[in-house]
């Protein structure tokens, strides 16, 4: 299982529209509206890198109000 955090910038005033477009996606476990450089943070769980690629291509890139994303793949500490 791969966990990733996707930082999202949307067109001003479209946060609710983007939230509505994403809220029922089974790969998205949490959505946060945040202040600062980014507008939303998504916590995503997928089975593989290929599935993460598919999520970006088939979900995020098809939402016209999303201007930019940055994806952080989570890792764990060993120790």
Can you describe what's shown?
The protein has helices spanning 15-22, 49-58; strands spanning 2-10, 28-33, 40-46, 66-73. It has 79 residues and is of the alpha+beta class. The chain has a domain at 1-44: Lrp/AsnC effector binding domain/regulation of amino acid metabolism (RAM) domain (Alpha-Beta Plaits). A 4-stranded antiparallel sheet has the order 2-3-1-4. β2 (28-33) and β3 (40-46) form a beta hairpin. It starts with a strand and ends in a 6-residue tail after the last strand. 13% of the residues are buried. This is Transcription regulator, Lrp/AsnC family. Residues 6-74 form the Transcription regulator AsnC/Lrp ligand binding domain. It holds the Pfam family AsnC_trans_reg.
Shape: globular
Q: Largest sheet at a glance?
A: 4 strands, antiparallel
Distance between the termini: 20 Å
Strand-pairing-aware structural class: alpha+beta
Helix content: 10-25%
CATH fold call of one domain: Alpha-Beta Plaits
Radius of gyration over C-alpha positions, nearest whole angstrom: 13 Å
- The CATH architecture classification of one domain is 2-Layer Sandwich
> What's the total helix number?
2
Indicate the mean pLDDT.
96
Biggest sheet, strands in spatial order? Answer: 2-3-1-4
Strand content: 35-45%
SSE order, as H and E?
EHEEHE
What is the compact description of this entry?
Helix content is 23%, strand content 38%.
Q: What's the helix and strand layout?
A:
Elements: E1 2-10, H1 15-22, E2 28-33, E3 40-46, H2 49-58, E4 66-73
Antiparallel strand pairs: 1-3, 1-4, 2-3
Keywords:
2 helices; alpha+beta; Alpha-Beta Plaits; about 80 residues; four-stranded antiparallel beta sheet
């Amino acid at each position: 299982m791969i966990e990733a955090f996707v930082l999202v910038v949307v067109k001003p005033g479209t946060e609710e529209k983007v939230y509505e477009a994403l809220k029922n996606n089974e790969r998205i476990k949490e959505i946060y509206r945040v202040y600062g450089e980014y507008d939303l943070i998504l916590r995503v769980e997928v089975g593989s890198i290929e599935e993460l690629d598919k999520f970006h291509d088939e979900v995020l890139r098809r939402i016209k109000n999303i201007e930019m994303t940055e994806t952080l793949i989570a890792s764990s500490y060993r120790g």
